[in-house]
Amino acid sequence: MSIAAIIVMIVCIVALWGVASVALVYSLGQEERKLQLIKKQGSFEPYSPQALRDLNRWIEQNNTSEHAQEMRNVHEEQRAALQKCTSYFYTWNRSDIESLKEI
Q1: How far is 98 from 57, CA to CA, in rounded Å?
Q2: Fewer CB within 10 Å, N side or C side of the chain?
Q3: How many Å apart are CA 10 and CA 14, to the nearest integer?
Q4: Residue 102 pLDDT level (bands cut at 50, 70, 90)
Q5: What is the pLDDT, as a whole number, of residue 11?
Q6: Burial tier of 45 (Cβ tally within 10 Å: 0-12, 13-18, 19+)
Q7: Where in the sequence is the domain holding 61, given as residue range(s)?
Q8: Residue 51 and residue 89 in one domain
Q9: 99 in helix, strand or coil?
């Protein structure tokens, strides 16, 4: 095996472990932040603003689906969590929170 091949293999291994380590540290930081919110206020909002928009769009488009009521319940849980919590994990505009309507 040539020296160039050995160097490429070592660089690939280091890069793989480097990326994996960065991803792990980032994920653990996010989980620590969630844990702090749970300790501080008992819960946090389970879905991001984009996920809530997607959920609203799905409910509007599939209003008669057999899963529509389940999705409405998920939406209601998110709405209740946003109104209950004082600190948020995701970035929310106050106007977005106040404009949430019951579906």
Answers
A1: 18
A2: N
A3: 6
A4: low
A5: 96
A6: buried
A7: 43-103
A8: yes
A9: coil
